[in-house]
Design brief:
Layout lengths: L3 H8 L3 E4 L11 E2 L5 E2 L4 H12 L3 E5 L5 H10 L3 E3 L5 H11 L7 E5 L5 H4 L4 E4 L5 H6 L2 E2 L8 H12 L3 H9 L3
Parallel strand pairs: 1-4, 1-6, 4-5, 6-7, 7-8
Antiparallel strand pairs: 2-3
Length: about 180
Amino acid sequence: MIPDWLNEKMARIKILLLDVDGVLTNGKLYFGNSGEVLLPFDVRDGSGITYLKHAGLLTGIITGKNNNAVSHRARDLQVTIVHRNVKNKVAVLDDILRTHDLLPEEALYVGDDLLDLPIMERVGVSVAVADAVFEVREAADYVTSSPGGDGAVREVCEMILKAQNKWEAVVERYRSMQ
């Protein structure tokens, strides 16, 4: 059960921002024969991002890594706000908010490690995945029941949509598909 105070904060969210390693992926790195890094992404997380986009919310990625797999996955999901190789996530957040005329309280960020703490302190809703480090779980407004790369992002997307009374419209959209 989501507490009322958190539901009220989620009702104001206009943008979902995500870390990648440990949030959109399980945090493991797989190396191909030629040395390329392969990342496992969860299909359910991708569906949740798609549902948010159909409901009119913005989605974005802010990651310290510079992996092309991130760009490919973002393009696949039509996530147009993608910042890779980021050293200062708060500066990128401020730029995103300014560009899209948003307030910090209209942003939700999902993280898993210490690098995420400064941005989590700045946004309206901070979320840690279930397997995040202790300090991140302690700092978060909400800790998912699912680990990173295994449905945690989907869980957050559904929470946002339900808080904004948009979930039933998403479900109905798929029920009415022929």
